[in-house]
Amino acid sequence: MRNQAGMNEKERTRRLTVMGLLCAVAYVIVAVCRIPIVSFLKYEPKDVVIVIGGFLYGPLASFAISAVVSLVEMLTVSDTGFYGLLMNILSSCAFACTAAFVYARRHTLKGAICGLLAGTALMTLMMLLWNYIITPAYMGAPREAVVKMLPTVFLPFNVFKGGLNAALTLILYKPLMRALRLAHLVPESGAAKKGASLWNAGTLLAAAVLAATCVLILLAVKKVI
Question: Does residue 194 surpass a pLDDT of 90?
Answer without folding.
Answer: no
